[in-house]
Amino acid sequence: MLQRNKSLLAFNTFGIDATASHFSSFDSIASLKELLLNRDDMPLFILGGGSNILFTQDFNGLVLKNEILGFEILEENEETVLVKAGAGMNWHEFVLKCISLDYGGVENLSLIPGNVGASPMQNIGAYGTEIKDVFEFLDAVHISSGTIQRFTNEECAFGYRESIFKNKVKGEYVICHVGFRLSKKHILNTSYGAIEAALQDQNIKDPKIKDISNAVISIRQSKLPDPKVIGNAGSFFKNPIVSKKKLTQLLDQHPEIPNYPSGEDAAKLAAGWLIEQSGWKGKVIEARYGVHKKQALVLVNYKDAKGSEILNLSLQIINDVEQKFGVRLEREVNIL
What we know:
alpha+beta, four-stranded mixed β-sheet
């Protein structure tokens, strides 16, 4: 059912009270096609879990909330299983479902906010794992024609927090189902020190995928604010990638700067460290919004902040980091 002047406050984890002039939800490809057919060329925005969006103004158009659910096993053998999930399924619930069936590969991605459909859009990643490592395919509806197209791993052109859906075909498709190739014979990824430390604290010497998931959940809960308590969208900025030449220059001036290899001639820097060194960590503005006290990557809405205020805060941070380090941060959150 089409609703008019719908508040989006309950549909975004930042807790921004923006309004959509037209709003509806869909729980199947058929209902999506019908809504697209009757939208009268209104501007369109597809809403998932609302965990990676900052509304800076009201939306004069049609917001469609993806509520396609479902979990299906398509094929399996002794080593792997191919599962298909609805794009409207909560991501963490999907991870827990896989773990309950002893399907491995996504345990390091536990507690990431958002829905299944958003996972390939930005190639979500954490603790040494990215969606591209387990992604098999996605099915999407082409908005203009209504046709269904299947995209393979290669066709999605995954990069660091990137895919074809964030650049080349942005706004052209609605992701409806996602297929993942998961393991039945697990190769655990405990390479991140925080995971190893968490397992040692619990005296777990032979971890299972559930143990990895629990460790990741514990780490994330200790560092990141719960959006149900404090409005936020998780990491607001991408970790910047710089050339090795630039890294050498930075290390000359800041020997302690955290850095990680990224390809043959590049390195990834810790955006949170850059922001903290620029004096922003824990800063609160007008007692309403600011930068989280435990994780400088996270911008927060304490009370009744406007999206435009948080956007302006992010610009101040970007400018200060660039002035201090000569590195320009990119936003990970979508701005509308």
